[in-house]
Design a protein that fits this description.
By secondary structure, the protein is of the alpha+beta class. About 40% of the residues lie in helices and about 15% in strands. Helix 3 (about 130-135) packs antiparallel against helix 4 (about 140-155) and helix 6 (about 180-200) runs antiparallel to helix 8 (about 205-220).
Length: about 240
């Protein structure tokens, strides 16, 4: 029988809050936010009417644990399992360094002294979604989009030393593939092979798909510079948050 997952509550996070905000602060509410499957994300409300966001990396919070292939755990691959406190912290620091506004990182802990998992505490940015703002106040929404555009330009202008995940490259790692373009081609071919093994239609079209990919790859000009981009926005730019 499958064991029920146990998530964080106020009693388990009390020590974290006291470590970050002081012994005179207490928790009045904890909400586990939806949308993630590799880590837990909690909005923690405090008794002074402020709040913070706590990220938790543990086996209890990772729904992909044990389901990924060995290649997904290969740190040298730009397509490896993209989760963990090291990646999170490195991405946050890099955005801060180039002037791209993101929630401030207040605290990190890998020791599991305060909680049975690796944790990070960040600023809670409230106020609703950009879509809601555009619907209710288009002028204010446009101004916010302008700020976002400035941040994207700052990311684009940054020059990274090589392609790969920020934490891995900054630690001196060399991503597999030789080049950004070759790494993406190899990944796409692997996906085709995987699909062909699962579906007869994909198997029938495998050769045609592979030929098309290689034809497209031959027209791609090699990258001589690498910028900064969020991996969810565009996988083709290689120095990823």
């Amino acid at each position: 029988m499958k064991t029920e997952r146990r998530f964080a509550d106020a009693s388990q996070l009390a020590g974290v809050v006291q470590e970050v905000f002081g012994a005179d602060r207490s928790i009045v509410g904890v909400d586990r936010l939806a949308g993630g499957s590799k880590k837990g994300v909690y909005r923690v409300a405090l008794d002074d009417r402020t709040s913070a966001v706590v990220y938790v990396w543990s086996a209890e919070e990772d729904y992909w644990d044990g389901l990924l292939s060995d290649s997904s755990n290969d740190s040298e691959s730009v397509f490896a399992h993209s989760s963990g406190i090291d990646l999170f912290e490195a991405a946050t620091r890099r955005l801060e360094a180039i002037g791209a506004r993101s929630p401030r990182l207040l605290f990190t802990d890998r020791s599991q002294r305060l909680y049975p998992g690796e944790i990070a505490v960040a600023e809670d940015v409230t106020g609703g979604t950009l879509q809601t703002l555009l619907d209710t106040d288009p002028d204010a929404g446009k101004a916010t989009l302008g700020q976002l555009a400035e941040m994207v330009r700052a990311m684009h202008q940054y020059r990274a030393p090589a392609f790969g995940k920020v934490a891995f490259v900054d630690g001196g790692g060399v991503s597999k593939g030789g080049t950004c373009e070759a790494a993406h081609l190899e990944h796409a071919l692997t996906n085709i092979a995987d699909a062909a093994a699962r579906d007869v239609r994909a198997a029938a079209g495998r050769e045609q798909l592979e030929d098309k990919l290689r034809t497209l790859y031959a027209t791609v000009e090699p990258r001589s510079e690498f910028g900064l981009v969020h991996g969810e926005l565009q996988k083709a730019l290689a120095y990823e948050i």
